[in-house]
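Page 42, continued from yesterday. The earlier attempt failed because a stray header line got pasted into the input along with the sequence. Redoing it now with the clean sequence only.
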Amino acid sequence: MTTKVVNIVTGINRSAAPSSGSLILVNDLYDAMPDVHTTFLGRAPVDQAWKAAFDHLITLSTTKRPQGPGFDRYVDELTREVGALIEQIQPDAIHAQYLGLALSLAFARTAGTIPIIAIAHGPDVMVAERSSAEREAMNEVAAASATIVTPTPVLANRIDRLTGRRFTDRLAVIPWGIRLADTQVRDQPPTAGPLSLVHAGRLDDNKSTITAVEALALTDQPHNLTVIGTGPLREHLEKRTIELGLRDRVRFEPFLPRAHLWRRLPDFDAFVFTTRGLEAFGLVLIEAQAHGLPVAYSDLPGVKEILGNAGVPFTPGDPRSLAAALDEMGRDVNRRKSLTKAALYNAHRYDISTTGRQLRELTLRVTS
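This time it went through. Structure tokens are written below.
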């Protein structure tokens, strides 16, 4: 019996390179999805090694313009370009990444009878919560979609509320995953005393890296922190570090490609996750766990369900609460050993091959 190959069109309206968690996830996902032919729509410049996950990568030519007076005209132009591509490719299904953003709107307006599976990533939900125009766009894409995929029930509930609970029966939860086979567990046994901590992610207000920096000024033990990432708050964070007298204990490093970051993770004792608002899934938490790192995490809705019992929670945005959590981890070696064991066990629930298989099965159901 011949296995059906599903012809899928998807895309993200950004440079086709591993520059964010969503782009890395999508690259992993379609590389891991069995029996599909994937055409990816992106923008130049294109990372030649990264694009290998897709059977065909097309760079969009419509000049990108952000929200503003020219946004509607931009979406119209993008829709014409995408419509011509859809007509040419004739896919079995469209996977619309980022529910309600420009490329998803173009898909929704050109799909015709081709079924759309919309895939929410988190930032799309955050902008819809802040802007009525973005909520309208989200509702338009949701109405055009056969199914709306989210990685957690928490994000599904947020979308359900933003769309007036009109599409509840279209919501489906498929947890995200990582390439577990590429991870390497740290081989140093934990010891009591100050921790070598790492925080990785975009340096913006929602990621709240400032919470980790200020927590170090409140700990009983002189823990050290390495911050890996770029973003608009980098300069402010460095200035605050100096003000708190932490220059010798906080180190800043630029964004690292994932392969480089993963090689670094086993060098640390624990991972610090400080997001204080919406977090769609937090793949970096699973990445840290898969490398054997205990996690101190913001106690946000849904995060505990992702981490299982493999982390130490603290109050989001509260440096004093985080400081107490870090000191507890530093003092109790046996606790850290058990957290490491639980972290490795939990991470193995999130293999990207499982995500790919589930999304393919969903796509088959929708297309049939």
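Notes: The chain has two domains: 6-177+351-367, 180-347.
Reminder to self: strip header lines before submitting.
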